[in-house]
Please model this.
Amino acid sequence: MLPQPAIDQAPGGQEDVSMTHLLTPLHNLFQPQPVDQGQDALYLRLKKLPRRVVQVFLLSRLDNLPYPAIAQRLDISVAQVEKEMLQALEQCRSQSGSQAASAWYVKLQNPQTTASERIDFRRWLDANTAHLQAFHGTELRWRQLLAAARHLGRGGWYQHRRRHGGLLGWVMAVVGALLVGGLAGWI
Model:
């Protein structure tokens, strides 16, 4: 609810609405926004991961790309995508989660998961009630990662492949070093 503006009586009997009361108070402008400590902690955990792992995670989480598309975009194998997704999920695993639950969660997101692998998952799930709880905890953690992923992926940096100098970069570095070394010998 907005504060009511102060109304002053101006000379001549007309009402004058004071503009200072219509403006946002300065003390409100500089107060920090409330931060969800849980989301901030997840963001910091994700930020510690290697660039490629974060890139794979964000392409999956924000762009909803399937593992084969991520692998093709980054010129890596689907197995490497799974490995890096597992690394991202493990970095943010909650106390109630388990490594096996994280591994199954990542595996089941891959559209190339076979029917026999899904049957193995079902057997693992049925083997112990703790497995179901751990898997459920992993699903909840995955949903919680969306806000941290959005924050981490601002600007869309993760959608572009990293540019490497490649062989030309190495050749230029060696030639530069030889020139500097040769010039140092002449001086």
